[in-house]
Amino acid sequence: MFQIKEQDSSSGKELNETEINNLSDKEYKLILIRMLTDLGKRIDEFSENINKELENIKKGQVELKNTIMEMSNSLEGNNSRVDDTKECISDLNESVEESTQAEWKKEKRVKMNKDSLRDLWGNIKHTNIHIIVVLEGKERDKGAENLLEEIIAENFPNLGKETDVQVEEVQRAPNKMNPKRTTPRHIIIKMSRIKDKEKILKAARERQQVTYKGNPIRLSVDCSSESLQARMEWHDILKVLKVKTYNQEYST
């Protein structure tokens, strides 16, 4: 009977009240010990499972915490880069604005200088006369002053007797606008006195046709900025020639 009871208890079947009452103390204790032992094992297994679950939960929490920390660090890094980018853009905008202002001021200064130069040249060119359609080289053959004197003598003999014409400077206009031009370049004559220029041009208008050696020419007032450009170009040319001459003399 004890063996039967033991099998029933091990198989998990419950004993009825009659069977329990019929058990001896020894049998009852053995069954109770087995039940307690089995219960202890189950409790241990349950506790172990719970501990494993808790450990997994803790690991998951640690991983989640690390992930959140990484995301937070990444977000802070992105925010820092965004701030740096904004600062760089701000600095770039300031630099562009400063460059724009500097360029604007430079252009303004250049314009003011050009205007001043034009005003100055406007005063200077009042004494200039253009001689048009005179063959190249005549001013070299006769000399600049002699060329003008011959024109005056040929066309305005009375003016030549009344006026002591004084020439300050003579030059040909460069062929910058059209290097292949076939017509002679203008001769630009700078008079020492405005009144001499006015007398010559007045006489030319009254005569209507002016000639040189019988060939028609034209005398006109210097009313363009070409003369200014010509003077600047000749100044640069003479400067280069002066440097070359100095270098040749120094090398020899």
Give the distance, in angstroms, between the N- and C-terminal Cα atoms.
144 Å
The residue fraction in helices comes out at: over 70%
Number of strand elements: 5
Tell me the major beta sheet: 5 strands, antiparallel
Structure, explained:
It holds the Pfam family Transposase_22. It comes from Equus caballus (Horse). Residues 128-222 form the L1 transposable element RRM domain. The protein has 252 residues and is of the alpha+beta class. It has helices spanning 2-10, 17-22, 25-124, 138-142, 144-155, 157-162, 194-207, 226-251; strands at 128-132, 167-172, 187-191, 210-212, 215-221. Strand 4 and strand 5 form a beta hairpin. Helix 1 (2-10) packs parallel to helix 3 (25-124). The chain is rod-shaped, with a radius of gyration of 58 Å. Mean pLDDT is 76; it is low at 1-13.
